[in-house]
């Protein structure tokens, strides 16, 4: 049986949801500033995770995952702003926040595990 990469899958589908949110914000809300920022950070998470799959070392992998962690945090901030200013309805906000929080938790656990493994080799 094949091993499913949960964070890879979750970040990919999250990027699709962020793309759909971007389309909604541009077309329905005429919002062009925050929408671009959240599109960039929200889709970067999965792209960076894909990069990390081919990291040159465990330290490089940890570094890339740390960047993905920063991008998901930036996305969470953007979602909070959009919700607070009334551009993102509560139900959509709750769903996206739940997914982004889960992605953040998974990435954080991966980083902790890699740090532990790196320190064990020293």
From TrEMBL:
InterPro entries: 23S_rRNA-intervening_sequence, 23S_rRNA_IVS_sf. Coiled coil: none annotated. SUPFAM superfamilies: IVS-encoded protein-like. Pfam families: 23S_rRNA_IVP. NCBIfam families: four helix bundle protein. This is Four helix bundle protein.
